[in-house]
Structures are given as C-alpha cells and as structure tokens.
Amino acid sequence: MKDLVEFIAKALVDQPDEVRVEQLEDSRTITLELRVAPDDMGKVIGKQGRIAKAIRTVVNAASVNEKKRVMVEIVQ
C-alpha cells in the first residue's frame, strides 16, 4: 500500500524527491500519511479534493485482501 501511494504521488507532483509516505498500523486500521512539498499540496488534493478522493478509492480497492481498513491522510 505504501509503495502504491508513493508511486501515484510522485507521478502527480513537480518535486518527486519531496514525497514521503509513513505507514502507521493499529489492530484494525492502516494509516498512510502522505507528505509532499508545500507547493505540490494543491496537485495532490486537486480541485474540490477530487484527486485525493481518487487516490483513496484506488488504495481502498487495492486493499481488499488486507483484513484491515486502509486510510490515506495528506499531511502538511
């Protein structure tokens, strides 16, 4: 999951070297924290959050085999 989010984010931004993804696990959830350069925040979020929603949809579809809920958070 972490690699998938990192791959998608690097394809979207102007500064792919600044992309960082941290994975935090609970007993029920996996949280992926996505960090990008401040100038690239708009590119990852998109107009009205459409790109962020699309990233979350792809991750949820890919996490069907996981027995945990996967959440993607975009952090400054």
From TrEMBL:
Protein's UniProt name: RNA-binding protein KhpA
Gene Ontology MF terms: RNA binding
Complexes and interactors: Forms a complex with KhpB.
Cell compartments where the protein resides: Cytoplasm
GO biological process: cell wall organization; peptidoglycan biosynthetic process; regulation of cell shape
Family classification: Belongs to the KhpA RNA-binding protein family.
GO CC terms in record: cytoplasm
